[in-house]
Amino acid sequence: MFPPSFSIYVHVPFCHTKCHYCAFDSIPSRPTHAFTSWRKAILADLNYQAKTLNHHPPRPVTSIFFGGGTPSLLPPAIIGEILQHIQQLWPQSNQTEITLEANPESTTPAKLHDWRSLGINRLSLGIQALDDHRLSLLGRPHTTLQARQVFAESRKAGFETINLDLIHSSPGHTPHQWQEELSLAMELNPEHISCYALTVEPGTPLERQLNAANLQLPTDETAATLYQLTQSVLEQHGWNRYEISNYARQDHVCRHNLAIWLSGDYLGVGPAAHGKMTHQDGAIIRTHNHWPLEGYIHTQKHHDAPFQWVELSSPEEAAADCLIMGLRLVAGIPRQLYREIAGADLMEKKSAAVDFLVKEGLLLMDPTSIRLSPRGLDFLDTCLTWLI
């Protein structure tokens, strides 16, 4: 059996400003009393989920992830109170990975030292670009110099695992520019780099600018070159690609995200957060918390459930999710894990699709794993349409 890991995701919806490309459930920062109301609701949410979704005895927490939004806007004392509350509800070990997403404009040396003292051992810096023109285009409220300074300050504060979030394929982005940005990122020498292609989401300022013909995205050919350049440059310099957009040195993979990609369980805490829990009888429950923020806080004030809905996943849905998430990984998924979730081997369920994808050199299967070839990863969505 593959016992599912157990993680906790805490959604912080506050941001300094809304970036031009952002479609996440976030809001421009509110007065301090909004932080206080959010904090009370988070603690109530944790209590509710511990009471209604917990295993007996409670499983140890393998990772905690503060995401957003911009968690670095929060006073460190609030983060500390949440971590302490989690520790009271669930067992942990010294190996628990605790990640905090931080942006340069809201990160200070004092905060960095406070975060380390609270036990946060992984920092994810929302750099997004290392070019001031692109930062302005994306609506990021910091400069390249600020990003580099914050990275240096993070090292001084004792952070030994730092991720850089970067975005390529923004309007006007060229391979030459991206090569220079990747070089600057590598000079910083982080343990982990996440490189995502820009996605234009409906209703964002970026979409409106594109529709007005003020901006143009790179051609498909240029976007493909940027994607391939990312892989070749980073791998040549020692960052191993372990997921379609994520690269790590040695043992510095993001354990929180890896657990989710491998069908692990996680509580989604905070407004709009999603969660997945496997009951001891094998049933899978999915949760989606209330949004907007006011609706989420209302549940705490009236002692209501923080969930907007709860549903049981069928074996077919769980099997599809296993492939959708797990085939993003370069190593793919354990074949036995898929059997346990789906109730049958992939060859039994999708023999014709498997035969076709293997013949085309897109899918690789052996007695222990199911994974896509490097070429298959380039056509992930197409492969998934065959398999689910």
Question: Would you mind describing this structure in some detail?
Answer:
- By secondary structure, this protein is α/β, with parallel strands linked by helices.
- The chain has 2 domains: 6-259, Aldolase class I (TIM Barrel, Alpha-Beta Barrel), CATH 3.20.20.70; 330-387, no CATH class.
- Helices cover 43% and strands 23% of the residues.
- It contains 16 helices and 17 strands.
- It has a 9-stranded mixed β-sheet, sandwiched between helices. A 3-stranded antiparallel β-sheet has the order 12-13-14. Strands 15-17-16 form a 3-stranded antiparallel β-sheet.
- Helix 1 crosses helix 10 and helix 6 (175-188) runs parallel beside helix 8 (220-236).
**Radius of gyration, Cα only, in angstroms?**
21 Å
- Beta-strand share of residues: 15-25%
For the record, what CATH class of the largest domain applies?
A: Alpha Beta
Instruction: Provide the spatial order of strands within the biggest beta sheet.
Output: 9-10-8-7-6-5-4-1-11
Q: In brief, what are we looking at here?
A:
The chain has 388 residues and is of the alpha/beta class. It has 16 helices and 17 strands.
Give me some keywords for this one.
TIM Barrel, alpha/beta, 43% helix, three-stranded antiparallel beta sheet, 388 residues, nine-stranded mixed beta sheet, 16 helices, 2 domains, globular
Write the layout of secondary structure elements.
Blueprint: E1 6-12, E2 14-15, E3 27-28, H1 32-53, E4 61-68, H2 76-89, E5 92-102, H3 109-117, E6 122-128, H4 132-138, H5 144-156, E7 162-168, H6 175-188, E8 192-197, H7 205-211, H8 220-236, E9 240-243, E10 246-248, H9 255-261, E11 265-269, E12 274-278, E13 284-289, H10 293-301, E14 307-313, H11 315-326, E15 333-334, H12 335-342, H13 346-349, H14 351-359, E16 363-365, E17 369-372, H15 374-378, H16 380-387
Helix pairs in contact: 1-2, 1-10, 6-8
